[in-house]
Amino acid sequence: MGEKTVLENPYSGLEIVDGQTVMAPEDYQDPKILYDKLIKRVRKYHPSDDISMIEKAFDIAYHAHEGQCRKSGEPYIIHPLWVGIILAELELDKETIVAGILHDVVEDTVLTDEQITEIFGKEVALLVDGVTKLGKLSYSSDKLEVQAENLRKMFLAMAKDIRVILIKLADRLHNMRTLQFMREEKQMEKAKETLDIYAPLAQRLGISKLKTELDDLALKYSNPEVYYDLVKQINSRKSEREEFVQQIVTEVSAHMENANIKAEIKGRVKHFFSIYKKMVNQDKTIDQIYDLFAVRIIVDSVKDCYAALGVIHEMYTPVPGRFKDYIAMPKPNMYQSLHTTLMSSVGQPFEIQIRTTEMNKTAEYGIAAHWKYKESGDGKKDVSMQEEEKLSWLRQILEWQQNSDNREFLSLLKGDLDLFTDDVYCFTPNGDVKNLPNGSTPVDFAYSIHSAVGNKMVGARVNGKLVNIDYKIQNGDRIEIMTSQNSKGPSRDWLNIVKSTQARNKINQWFKKELKEENIIRGKELLQAYCKTKALVYSDLTKPKYMQVVQTKYGFKEWEGILATVGHGGLKEGQVINRLLEEYTKDHKEEITDETIIERVKEATKRTAQVTKSKSGIVVKGIDDMAVRFSRCCNPVPGDEIVGFVTRGRGMSIHRTDCVNIINLSEAERIRLINAEWEASVVEERGQYTASIKIYAHNRQGLLMDVSKVFTENKLDITSINTHTSKQEVASLDLSFVVTGRDQLAHVIEKLRQIQGVLDIERTTG
Predict the structure, then answer these.
(1) HSE of 275, CA atoms in CB hemisphere, 13 A
(2) Which of 221, 310, 617, 720 maximizes the CB count within 10 A of its CB?
């Protein structure tokens, strides 16, 4: 019968002290002891006794990294050894572990690719090379471009060999474990990147062993106050909850024994990020969440899973609508289990998960459990793997790469990796199961079958009845798509109703292809019109060498691709023209002094005197009674630090010095900046100026009313308001309103910060 193991540690090889994951014991910082730990772990699962390859890799890495230290002060070799241990905990083959140990040697030491190939063979060399390339980011001032390009590299590496990404995930996990040695802004950056990309990727690959720890460590550094408060609250009632789970484990064990079901019963701590997510999504306190622990029943067969479920439902009252059968309908990442929420004898709900030993292994190791090269005792490999079946979603991503620019690709990818979207299961007329994001429509279903079905769709039947195309699919629906060869193709309105990334991408691809000529013409017109408003000559900017730079930046082979993308709205015309202008300016540099700038300003002022003839209240160095205009991107108000910018053909615009448009100016553009300041009399007077702010708050009823009340009490007019709520139930409110100056603005912001649930407020710029 089963072991009564309560509150198993989810982080193997580590200790958790007051919510802190620590690399204990101290011996684990000794390379020799760490190496012994690695070898013991490999010997537990590896059929071959020959560990000479790993021994050789350690010896080479140890000497290659000799003298190098990490930010913590420890020898650098500690990091690759821990990467190897994490990979060994996933029970991966020796080649992967060797590549994990060597993953930094080519980049950080004198060892070359050729030497690695000679010593360890081509397979290891390719893995090391794949991980090395993922670490090399081309410089770009646009962080989005860098992130998208890195992800492209990542998924191309996955297509060649999934083990490259497993090494990268292990590398990121150890870096997160030691993130306390980095400066604070770097901690925030790495934590956000982990939450956005690496944890969802581990989830998509089904590796909960890595995903849960990445989530918790990212929460610890991205939102430390929430993290440590959560730790404190959980520890305050730890013994009470452990007693409750122990009671459930004891009761379930007894009933499984009586039913002659061989089972292992475990109580599992739900990780901190999971609890935090539930608190935010359901707007609950920790005292209102009872299922902080889940009981897991592990049995020998699928038949025993359902038998155990029958026993459990006889013992406890099931909570309606809280049963999920992931055995009959597995998740896309291969996860299988029965989930049921029950009511205990004392009225507390709790969750039980039932799965087989093999399913439990898949839940922990995900794709690693299936992708491993099976080895015989002599070390020879059996390469009869089903990688194509296991990673069908990867093929979709590779298709997107061929047809999307960086921004679109990143948007599509983040949608696909979204952790907060549950699946809905439905059936084709032939009885095949389709799983789609919750909230999907028949249009999503049609495109999940084939692009041609979606493009020719004219209607749908659900369970034999005609439905509207915006019908929300329910679990168990049987869907039939009606098509017609006379269909003119998808409607742009469909983009507003589809839920799946796959459907949205295919609809966009149809419009790009079918309307390419129109989009090219429209794109060129938009670029020319933009140039006209900026007093630029379009033909001067569209020289082949300038165009080539822009094509490379946005990932297009031809200029027509840029034009078509601008035409259908995928790129803003200002983005393209400004990049062309940067290249043009590099070729037409001239020495510009303060005097020539002022002359240009005066000239621009003469041409744009109609902008304002009244005294602006702005003092510009070297110019009297200058005609200026206030920029709308940052809305400066009296009291703000300001700077003047000489525009092309429209005189001077005044910006706040912290405006992102000013901060991100190129060197060529910075020559147009001129010192400016407010006249003292203007600061003292009570004029009318527009200010813009963004409020972040926990979403709740009455939030908007409380915000409006602050403005009413201060007799301020709101000129515009725009609200948005994220899937994490964090509300964003963008407001513009009229103030007399910086003091009044600061007073209003202070009042808004006192509203219940407000997390942060920032002045919006650019």
Answers:
(1) 24
(2) 221
